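Whiteboard transcription, Tuesday session. T.W. wrote the structure tokens on the left side:
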């Protein structure tokens, strides 16, 4: 995909120019990654970091790109927090379920105290018992061991 494929039309031409200049700057830093500023952000400054090559989910991302990808997630998180004078950032990724586009992307959203977002966007479900929690933990440990072979 070309870099332009990551740029959605902006509300005004000046906003579009700002998007292009940010992408040009970051393209020097992220040779195999793309940046998209959303035209309907959760908050201004909400953007996506996207591998230019197609990978549907995090599990499809080649091992040699994991480090560079997350290094740039960290860099972009710092940049968004600084540029937007935010108190922090919310960094999120969906894999298949709730993934609106079947292409790996990470959301970086500037956050401020009392900005209206309440933690995660779904209700939490407590374990029914200590045994259930231990069983889930053991299943995950076994899966990690199997996938690490």
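and on the right, the sequence the group agreed on:
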């Amino acid at each position: 995909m070309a870099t332009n494929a990551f740029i959605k039309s902006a509300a005004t031409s000046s906003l579009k120019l700002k998007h292009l200049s940010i992408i040009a700057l970051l393209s020097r830093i992220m040779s195999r990654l793309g940046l998209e500023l959303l035209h309907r952000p959760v908050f201004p400054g909400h953007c996506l970091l996207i591998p230019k090559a197609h990978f549907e989910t995090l599990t499809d991302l080649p091992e040699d790109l994991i480090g560079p990808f997350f290094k740039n997630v960290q860099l972009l998180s710092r940049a968004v927090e600084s540029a937007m004078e935010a108190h922090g950032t919310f960094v999120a990724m969906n894999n298949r379920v709730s993934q609106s586009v079947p292409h790996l992307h990470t959301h970086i959203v500037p956050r401020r105290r009392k900005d209206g977002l309440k933690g995660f966007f779904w209700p939490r479900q407590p374990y029914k018992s200590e045994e259930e929690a231990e069983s889930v933990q053991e299943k995950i440990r076994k899966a990690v061991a199997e996938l690490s072979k």
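Someone added at the bottom: Residues 63-83 form the longest helix (21 residues).
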